[in-house]
Amino acid sequence: MLHYAVVFFVIALVAALFGFGGIAAGAVEIAKVLFFIFIVLAVVTFVFNLIKSKP
């Protein structure tokens, strides 16, 4: 499950690069929304992993 958190975080970083870096001028708003969606998914997955792994 931690693997998914890392994957979501990497996708969020790529979306941030496109959205906040100005690389994809036509898709800036979409990239910004995707950034926040994948950051939330990464945090939620990481928290669930912490809760699940406790004895």
Automatic annotation (TrEMBL):
KW Ubl conjugation (keyword) present? no
Q: Which residues cross the membrane?
A: 7-27, 33-51
Does the keyword field hold Transmembrane? yes
Annotated keywords? Cell membrane, Membrane, Transmembrane, Transmembrane helix
Say which family it is in: Belongs to the UPF0391 family.
This one is known as UPF0391 membrane protein HKT17_06985
Lineage of source species: Bacteria, Pseudomonadati, Pseudomonadota, Betaproteobacteria, Burkholderiales
